[in-house]
Design goal:
14 helices; disordered C terminus; globular; mainly alpha
């Protein structure tokens, strides 16, 4: 009986801890959703309304293309336009960074995994150290170089800078995944007349699709959520990403919290759908890549 009570007590403690963790993670998301369909009056009422009495969806409609209400200010109309531009820019930046990292990351990872580079085992750890380097540590030199070259406020520059920071981890992940593929497959292909590059793109890349999906999803999510690099290296409304656009919803004298919450919900949907769609590949790639890496 004592053993049974002990198990029940342990299970109860475990359940409480899980519920506390889920509450800590999901409570901000739930409040974001509630705020996005609440009116400004409901948000400031005490006690607060956990369930909106009159759900308000006009902000979603305005952000998705419907004309803003006539009562909205000029600032609201400009921030809505900035949000739509930011969505497009975030797609361009995230897609560009993903393509660059997968292309160069797969080539570098294959070199580290197969070509036996001198000191390759040490260089790969140097790359990881570069990944750990704080952005702030090299921000001023980067800004000075970009300014001297006249390349500020350009989306391609943001793509290159973000690729520079994400590429080391992509190389590490893909290198570990490539090492799980038997060398005999490549050797058999090269015996049949295929070049090493052909073996890479015809044998390794198709077999490494889970790892490539995992690296691609990781890179896309990190690039979509990037804030610091776009903040420093972009200035005009036509080049700002969606994370910067949402930050600009905070005005000097007034803040439309419901509109900002609705923008936050819409901006979080693409990475959520991407992660859910490729969840199987993401888990398989991370686990397989971590075995050898």
């Amino acid at each position: 009986m004592t053993l049974r009570l002990k198990r029940l007590f342990n299970n109860a403690i475990f359940t409480v801890l899980i519920l506390a963790m889920l509450t800590f993670i999901l409570a901000p998301i739930a409040w974001l959703l509630i705020s996005s369909i609440s009116t400004d009056q409901e948000l400031v009422e005490i006690p607060p309304h956990w369930i909106p009495q009159q759900p308000y969806f006009q902000d979603y409609a305005s952000l998705l293309g419907a004309p803003p209400p006539k009562s909205s200010s000029l600032l609201t109309a400009s921030t809505i336009a900035l949000f739509r531009t930011g969505l497009v820019n975030s797609f361009l930046v995230s897609l560009g960074v993903t393509v660059v990292c997968l292309l160069f990351g797969s080539l570098a990872a294959y070199a580290f995994a197969r070509l036996g580079l001198p000191g390759g085992e040490k260089v790969i750890y140097v790359l990881l150290l570069a990944q750990m380097l704080p952005v702030v540590a090299i921000l001023i030199p980067l800004y000075q170089v970009i300014t001297a070259l006249g390349l500020l406020d350009k989306i391609p520059v943001v793509i290159v800078l973000l690729s520079m920071f994400h590429l080391p981890f992509v190389i590490w992940m893909l290198r570990g995944y490539f090492q799980t593929i038997p060398r005999e497959l490549e050797e058999a292909a090269m015996v049949d007349g295929t070049t090493r590059a052909g073996a890479l793109f015809k044998i390794i890349v198709p077999l490494s699709s889970p790892g490539l999906f995992a690296a691609g999803v990781y890179t896309f999510l990190q690039s979509w959520n990037a804030f610091f690099i776009p903040l420093i290296f972009t200035s005009s409304d036509t080049t700002k990403t969606v994370s910067l656009a949402i930050a600009l919803f905070v005005g000097r004298h007034d803040t439309d919290y419901t509109l900002m919450s609705a923008a936050g919900v819409l901006a979080s949907l693409p990475p959520i759908f991407l992660a859910l769609a490729f969840q199987r590949y993401l888990l398989a790639g991370l686990v397989s890549g971590g075995i050898k890496g």
